[in-house]
Design a protein that fits this description.
By secondary structure, the protein is α+β, with helices and mostly antiparallel strands. Helices cover 25% and strands 32% of the residues. The protein folds into 4 domains: 125 residues, 2-Layer Sandwich (Cytochrome Bc1 Complex, Chain A, domain 1), CATH 3.30.830.10; 33 residues; 119 residues, DNA Polymerase III, subunit A, domain 2 (DNA Polymerase III, Chain A, domain 2, Roll), CATH 3.10.150; 121 residues, DNA Polymerase III, Chain A, domain 2. The strands form 6 sheets. It has a 9-stranded antiparallel beta sheet. A 5-stranded antiparallel beta sheet has the order 20-19-18-22-26. It has a 4-stranded antiparallel beta sheet with strand order 9-14-15-16.
């Protein structure tokens, strides 16, 4: 009973304290702060401070942040903040930074700015004897940003790199807990850094579209009142476009968007461009009871990507053209959804959420790719992927520009990578450690093909299985994701003496 009495006493005491506080009442202002409002509506706060001596600290706060953006503007408030340091009426280009640094103020450490959900803030510490200069800079930031086209384009790269560097573990956690913590608000969908596609593509000027139906013209107006432009584009009636085919006698399966995007990425680079062999210009989709198989080849290199965790009771296959594959890869990279694939002998349809893509298939029989993959390969090279790829790219600079021939001289503990161009009289070689089991061998490969394959793998180490210098090498990652198999074949280049 004593514990209950004490708990009630605490609750009553807390309730009494809370009753004295009104959360809606304004926060009291320090007595030493002078405040007021200018004719232009700006509220100012001034406070004397002796430390640091001889320095004035300016802050300008705009009640504008990410939350005020619409769906097409995400990231632009933060972009505008950056543009304050890239030109204004009195400080063209980045001269404002140079002007401030000439006063002993360091950009980034002392001079800086930030954009949040509800505000954009600029911070400017400046020597007291440069007070008027500080006021002039703040005026330019508030009213006179230049937004030069070239400066906008140059700053896109800076912003996109900042966006990329922010895609770490903390960002992935925010994606999970922000919708919970900020449930029912716009805040989870209005992060200050914005969206990559908007940052890449937003126009420097507003656009207005007007359809002139009688003339079948789309009129586009752009620019400002000081600098206007317009153009007319003809358009066709939607009814005049080809009607999407109704697929009959179809086969259907479901894969995740992640698997589909990964399979396309791992194979599409190996497709060919020979109009005489159209079947090799696409990727083979093969559904079997053992798994889903994706194959691409241009007769010089071949990639076989297998998913053992997706099966089909009835073996079926089709050849997808390269162009729609690139579209699918761009759509589904980074998405987490199921994709329904419906196809017959002539067409395929991919459906996910509100996305539908229909395309014609490549007609023809795909080559017997299993027949060209060597089965007996007693010689095996085990090597660090990144070291191998870096060395190849360096040595390739000295190879013949037509053949891209690069020699691998294999021994138990090291491989010597070399290239030469007799016509230009240049050569290079480089030793890197490896683990090699088999006969000593010199074998040549096209460095461009080999580098491309290594770049499309993720394993720390890779193996290359070989039999003879005139037979294909089989490249595989040492470690793969569960349910995944990747086999890459690269044809050798016949070495000269």
């Amino acid at each position: 009973m004593k514990k209950v009495t004490m708990l009630l006493a605490v609750l009553f005491a807390a309730g009494s304290a809370m009753a004295q506080l009104n959360p809606m009442s304004p926060i009291p202002v320090d007595d030493q702060v002078r405040t007021g409002k200018l004719e232009n509506g700006m509220t100012y706060y001034i406070r004397h401070n002796e430390k640091p001596k001889g320095q004035a600290d300016f802050y300008i706060l705009h009640d504008v942040g990410a939350i005020q953006e619409d769906d097409t503007q995400q990231g632009l408030a933060h972009f505008v903040e950056h543009m304050a340091f890239n030109g204004s009426k009195d400080y063209p280009g980045n001269s404002v930074v140079k002007q401030i640094e000439s006063m002993g103020i360091r950009f980034g450490n002392d001079l800086n700015a930030y954009t949040s959900f509800d505000e954009t803030v600029y911070m400017l510490p400046i020597p007291s004897d440069k007070f008027e200069e500080g006021m002039r800079i703040m005026e330019n930031w508030a009213f006179h940003l230049a937004f030069e086209d070239q400066e906008i384009d140059d700053e896109r790269g800076v912003i996109l790199e900042e966006w990329r560097l922010g895609k770490g573990a903390m960002d992935r956690m925010r994606e999970k807990f922000f919708p919970v913590l900020l449930y029912g608000s716009k805040y989870p969908d209005r992060l200050p850094l914005g969206k990559e596609e908007i940052l890449k593509t937003f126009p420097e000027q507003p656009l207005t579209f007007v359809a002139r139906e009688q003339e079948h013209l789309l009129k586009i107006n752009y620019g400002t009142t000081d600098n206007e432009g317009n153009c007319d584009l003809p358009y066709e009636e939607a009814d005049d476009y080809p009607v999407l085919p109704v697929l009959e006698d179809v086969t259907q399966t479901v894969v995740t968007s992640e698997i589909l995007a990964t399979a396309i990425q791992k194979t599409i680079f190996a497709t060919g461009n020979d109009d005489m062999r159209p079947v090799m210009s696409g990727v083979l989709f093969k559904f079997t009871p053992e798994g889903l198989v994706f194959v691409a080849t241009d007769a010089h290199k071949l990639v076989k990507y297998v998913r053992e965790d997706i099966t089909s009771p009835v073996p079926v296959e089709f050849i997808m053209p390269k162009k729609p594959l690139n579209i699918l890869k761009n759509i589904f990279s980074g998405l987490a959804t199921d994709v329904t694939i419906t196809f017959n002998r002539t067409n395929a349809r991919f459906e996910a959420d509100d996305i539908v893509l229909t395309c014609r298939l490549i007609d023809g029989k795909y080559p017997n790719y299993e027949a060209v993959i060597p089965k007996d390969n007693p010689n095996q090279l085990l090597i660090d992927r990144l070291s191998f790829m870096s060395s190849l790219r360096r040595i390739a600079l000295f190879s013949n520009k037509t053949t891209h021939q690069t020699r691998l001289s294999l021994s138990p503990a090291e491989v010597v990578i070399s290239a030469e161009d007799n016509e230009e009289g240049k050569r290079a070689d480089e030793k890197i450690p490896c683990s090699y089991r088999g006969e000593r061998m010199d074998i040549g490969f096209n460095s461009r093909f080999l580098s491309e394959m290594l770049a499309n793998l993720e394993s720390k180490e890779v193996t290359i299985d070989m039999s003879k210098p005139n037979r294909a090498g089989i490249l595989r990652p040492l470690e793969s994701n569960e349910g995944e198999q990747i086999t890459m074949l690269v044809m050798p280049v016949i070495l000269g003496n």
